Amino acid sequence: MPIAHEFEYAKPETIEEAVGILDKHGSGAQVLAGGTDIVPGLRDGLMKPGLVVDIKGIAGLAGIEHRGNVLRVGALATFTDLIESELVQERVPLLYEMAMTVASVGVRNRATITGNICSAVPSCDSGPVLLVHDASIDVTGPDGKRVIPIAEWFTGPKTTALGSAEIVTSVSLPVPQGDHGAAYVKLGRYRGEDLAQASVAVLALPDNEYRVAFGAVAPTPVCAPGIEKLLRGKVIDDALIDDAKKLVAKETAPIADIRASREYREHMLPIMLERGLRAAAARLGGKGPQYGATLI
Amino acid sequence: MKRSITLNVNGEGRSVDVEPNETLLEVLRERLGIKSPKIGCERGDCGSCTVLLDGRSVRSCLILAVELDGHEIVTIEGLSKNGLTELQQAFIDNNSFQCGFCAPGIMLAATELLARNPSPTEDEVKEAISGNLCRCTGYEPIVKAVLEVSGKGGGRQNG
Prior knowledge:
The structure holds 2 protein chains of 2 kinds.
Chain A: E1 8-10, H1 15-25, E2 29-32, H2 38-43, E3 51-54, E4 64-67, E5 70-74, H3 79-84, H4 86-91, H5 93-99, H6 105-108, H7 113-119, H8 126-132, E6 136-141, E7 144-149, E8 154-156, E9 159-160, E10 167-174, E11 181-187, E12 198-205, E13 209-215, E14 222-223, H9 225-231, H10 238-251, H11 262-284
Parallel strand pairs in A: 1-3, 2-3
Antiparallel strand pairs in A: 4-5, 5-10, 6-7, 6-10, 8-9, 11-12, 12-13, 13-14
Helix pairs in contact in A: 9-10, 10-11
Chain B: E1 3-9, E2 12-18, H1 24-31, E3 50-53, E4 56-59, E5 72-74, H2 76-79, H3 86-93, H4 103-116, H5 122-128, H6 140-149
Parallel strand pairs in B: 1-5
Antiparallel strand pairs in B: 1-2, 3-4, 3-5
Helix pairs in contact in B: 3-6
C-alpha cells in the first residue's frame, strides 16, 4: 500500500539549518534518520507531517568515538554500527549484546539507537541498557545545546523530554572504569523481527555494585532502585537472588497486550532477572557466556 | 513536490523524478521495472523487499526513494547479471525455494553475510536470514545452500 499522506522533504546540511527548519514548522515537521519507525508511521497514517527533515546529510552526526572515558554514539549510528564497533565490543559490550537482539540484519543496517529512544515505545531495547549505563542524551535546539539524563528522557509511552525544535546529536555513555560485567535478557516469541515481551538489563560493577533496569513492563523503560539497593555491597548467591526476585513485582507494572499476557510477563520477569544477574556477575569475573549468547 | 534523484541500480545510472512519499520499493517496481523485490508485509517484518543499498541489505519498503540520491542499489537482477552466482546455483541444487517469493530477499541477505563473513557457521546463517520469512521450505534447504558455499566465496558476484 503506497503512503497516502503527502509531505515535503528537506535535507539540511548543518544542525543549525535543521533546527531552524524545525523551529519554523513546529510539530508539522518530522525528523527522519533510519526511517524504520517513521515510514510505517507515515504509511499507517499515525504520522502526518507536512515536512520530513532528513538529517542524514548533516556532517558530524555519524560515528562512534571514545574520548575522556565517554563513549559518544552519534545520532546516525545504526545498530549494525554498534555491533561492528570494536570500541563498543571492548568498552560497553552490553550495547553490542542489546543491538544483536534488535529486529534483523536488514533493519539493523538502517535503524539507529537514537531513533529507537526517540520513538520511545515501552519495549525499546535501547532503554534499559542506556538506563543501567547512566547515559545522557545530547541535544541541540533553538536555544543551543543541552544534555538530558536518560533517567529524565522517557516521559511516557512514545513521548520524551525532547522539544519539538530540538535534535538529538548523540548519546553519551560513561565507560565503566575497571572491570565490569553486564547482561541483556530479552524475551521474545521468536528470533528475528520481534519486539520484546519483556527485557532486563543488568550491569555488575566492582565492589558488588549493581544496576538493573526493565523494558516492556511499564509505560517507559524503568530502573529498579529497590533491587539495586538490596544487592548493593553483597555477593550474588542463591538466597540473595531469591530476595531480589521477590522485589520484581514492586518495580514493574506489566500489562497484557498483543505480544504477551500480564501473567506471563509477571512469571518470566524474576526468571529473567536471575539469568541476567548470574550472567553479569560471571562476566565480571571473566567467566560466563560470551556477549551475544542467548540468555533465555 | 517531485524531486529528481539519480540512483546506480545494478550498475546502471538511473534518473527518476519521485514524490517524497514514494518508497524505494515502489520506485524499483513501478518506475524502473525491477520486480524482484516483492511487496510483502510493507512494515519491515518479512524481508521479501530486501535489496542491497551500498552493499548492505535493507528493507526497500522502509526507505523513501528521495533519501537515496547518489546511492547504489543491487537487486537479484544485478547479482546474476553475468550468470548465476555460486550461491544462486546452490539454491537450485538444493531445491531451496518453492514459490520463490522470499528467494530474492534471502539470497541478497545471504550474499551480504558471505561478503562480510565468507565462512559463516549454521547459527550465523540462521541469524543473518532470521528477518526473511519463507512459508514453503521450512528453511532447512535454504540454510543448507548457504552453508554449501560457506568458505568458497559464494557470495561474490561473477564477472
